[in-house]
Design a protein that fits this description.
Belongs to the sodium:neurotransmitter symporter (SNF) (TC 2.A.22) family. It is a multi-pass membrane protein. Keywords: Membrane, Symport, Transmembrane, Transmembrane helix, Transport. One of its GO terms (molecular function) is symporter activity. By secondary structure, the protein is mainly α. It has a single domain, classed as Hydantoin permease (Orthogonal Bundle), CATH 1.10.4160.10. It is built from 18 helices and 2 strands. A two-stranded antiparallel ribbon has the order 1-2. Helix 1 packs across helix 14, helix 3 crosses helix 16 and helix 13 packs antiparallel against helix 14. The mean pLDDT is 84.
């Protein structure tokens, strides 16, 4: 029986793996449409500030927890607080990852379908209305939706089953640089369009009149979602990190990479939106329905569309790896002999749980739960309730269950970090971040700021 504690092969491997977890559909798919609905530049500025001052402290907190114990999400809390209800935090994270991956794999399946459609030329020559109809037909087909979802989750299981270094780290090392290169190329091309200046102003010039409570709440939620914090993903990933890893620097690097990718995604999309007369607030269909129509009107549009949906698939898979890893790690408990069976078992279980979400736009379109489709209900439960709750519990847990001296030693391990930076982080994680999360959480439950 193999029962050894695995680690990332290098400091850079840790960066790539955590970047793969964070830089997914949150940056490529979710950021552009939420920014489009929330004021463009005003939203981006608020998102930037909240990521740096709230998201990064929480990310460092998860890093510290994981590396300090060297255990998975569930065992971390059980070890540090064996007789406390806080140990349920790990279970909450695992359950949340399961729910997220059940509907996330549906979107991943769509990315596979659109990559195939772009490769075969089926998206060529479509107007905006035809592109919207195509998207609606595709997601309504049970065979296509379920088949693509199954293929996506099997691809995810194949990589996770190979382990931390040979699977997740190796895949992330080539997928993340490829994603960044493709995004840069597409952004450069997009910035040469006639409407580039309008798109740049929309994305980068803040209109402070557009900033209200809703904008701040959306930006904070997007910051947590984009950094994969609140579900103990980073607790598990940092448990594989060495004591030489500089945790504060790693967290800041990841945050800046995430901001950069979100910016690139905006630079790819908004110049085309304004060049060809589309609306930036199209919502979740901005990528699938509007983008093909935009590329159709560009030179080399077919090739660019293929490149975009290839990187979109990379982004979806990289995050799916981390979500499945957290679930698998919690049940493998260091026994690597169980990894392959656990990976395939939970992948199939997640696929089955995701079937109602995949059918929410077809056979189960009439099924609504409090006015939401099954897909939207699972998304709302995981993203807007369980994630904020998990993040709040982590912030409450760290200063109450781990001594300040222990936190300081873990914080500075692998770096020459001064005590002033540690004091700032400690104050943020103990007071500021929990307060901000409470505001978001209360709003999601009671509509404090209205919609």
């Amino acid at each position: 029986m193999t029962n050894t504690h695995v680690q990332w092969s290098s400091k850079l491997g840790f960066i790539y793996a955590t970047a793969g977890s964070a830089i997914g559909l949150g940056a490529i798919w979710k950021f552009p449409y939420i920014a489009g609905q929330s004021g463009g530049g005003a939203f981006f500025l608020v998102f930037l500030l909240l990521t740096l001052f709230l998201g990064v402290p929480l990310l460092i907190g998860e890093y510290v927890l994981g590396r300090h114990t060297g255990k998975d999400a569930i065992l971390t809390y059980q070890t540090l607080a064996p007789r406390s209800s806080f140990q349920l935090t790990g279970w909450l994270g695992v359950i949340c990852c399961f729910l997220i991956l059940s509907f996330y794999s549906v979107i991943g399946g769509w990315s596979l379908l659109y990559l195939g459609s772009s490769l075969t030329g089926q998206l060529s020559g479509l107007s905006l209305e035809e592109s919207q109809d195509y998207f609606g037909h595709l997601i309504a087909s049970p065979q296509l939706a379920l088949g693509a979802q199954l293929l996506f989750i099997l691809l995810t299981a194949f990589v996770v089953a190979r382990g931390v270094q040979k699977g997740i780290e190796r895949a992330s090392k080539w997928m993340i640089p490829s994603l960044l290169i493709l995004l840069v190329v597409l952004a450069i091309y997009s910035l040469n369009l006639d409407g580039a200046s309008t798109g740049l102003r929309y994305l980068l010039a803040p209109n402070f009149a557009a900033v209200d409570g809703e904008t701040i709440l959306f930006a904070l939620g997007q910051s947590f979602f984009a950094l994969s914090v609140g579900v103990s993903v980073m607790v598990t990933f940092s448990s594989y990190a060495s004591k030489e890893q500089n945790l504060p620097a790693s967290a800041m690097t990841l945050a800046l990479m995430n901001i950069f990718v979100a910016l690139l995604a905006g630079l790819v999309i908004f110049p085309g939106v304004f060049t060809f007369g589309f609306q930036p607030d199209e919502g979740p269909t901005l990528i699938f329905a509007v983008l093909p129509a935009i590329f159709e009107q560009m030179a080399f549009g077919q090739l660019l569309l293929i490149a975009f949906f290839l990187l979109f698939l990379f982004a979806a898979l990289s995050t799916a790896f981390s979500l499945l890893e957290i679930i698998v790690a919690a049940f493998v408990r260091g026994n690597q002999d169980k990894r392959k069976k656990a990976s395939w078992f939970f992948a199939i279980l997640i696929f089955i749980a995701g079937i109602p979400s995949a059918l929410s736009y077809g056979l189960l379109a009439d099924l609504e739960i409090y006015g939401r489709s099954f897909f939207d209900t699972v998304d709302y439960l995981a993203s807007n309730i369980l994630m904020p709750l998990g993040a709040l519990l982590i912030c409450l847990f760290i200063p109450r269950k781990i001594s300040k001296e222990t936190l300081w030693l873990e914080f500075r391990s692998g770096s020459n970090t001064g005590k002033r930076l540690f004091a700032l982080w400690y104050a943020l994680i103990k007071y500021v971040v929990p307060l901000a999360i409470c505001i978001v959480f209360i709003d999601q439950l009671f509509g404090l700021f209205g919609k």
